[in-house]
Predict the structure of Aspartate racemase.
Amino acid sequence: MSAVTSGYRTATQAPDPAASGIVGVLGGMGPAATADFFAKLVRETPAVSDQEHLRTLVWSDATVPDRTDAILSDGPSPLPRLLEGVHLLQCAGAAIIAMPCSTAHAFLPDLRRASAVPILSMIDASVRRLRAAAPSVSRVGLLATTGTLVTGLYQAGLREQGIDAIVPPPLLQQRSVMRAVRLIKAGELEAAEQALAPAVRSVAGDGAGMIVAACTELPLVLGHRVEDLPVFDPTTALAQDAVALARRLPHPDHTKERP
């Protein structure tokens, strides 16, 4: 039997996630944010050749119902679609799963109960890495969807690290942050950057020492600094955690450790 034929036969067998070394990405919320996460996953991987990069499966399901609508106004729950994605990734051999959507983390406990493999928390990764990177920061400007703010997940995590979260006033949250998120999803990046500016100025004026781009759309229009404040990117924090964990998994050829 040829090596190619043997490979196809093996691929039809039930995968062993613990030995696969595959990173699963539960994405599509939105597609551009998912693509940004994958680019950062590649960037954060210490590799000098193709073969040293992580094996990755990206499930980008843009039909997942709006997470903020589900949290705020009894919109359709995204949970069935998210569970479907987790099941698909597991069946395809994912050993760990990363979900680059802050608002969807409201459903993380349910997803973890249904998953046989670890699902990383972008919020845990962010607050831990933010504190390590900026030990003197005591107040941050938290820019996120209204759904994410209502869950209080970032605020609670930051508070455990001794950091206060400053958020825009409700009207500005809608007219600036949520409008910017919608514009980014529509591909209107320049207009989104302009729409977001008043919210950035608001939290900066209230004493924030750093901006946290706690919606995975926002890093698409925020650079490393804005209003003379550093910007912390949770998408990068999640990528860093995924790389760190994936590099501890067995190498797929079972003959050598990861570089």
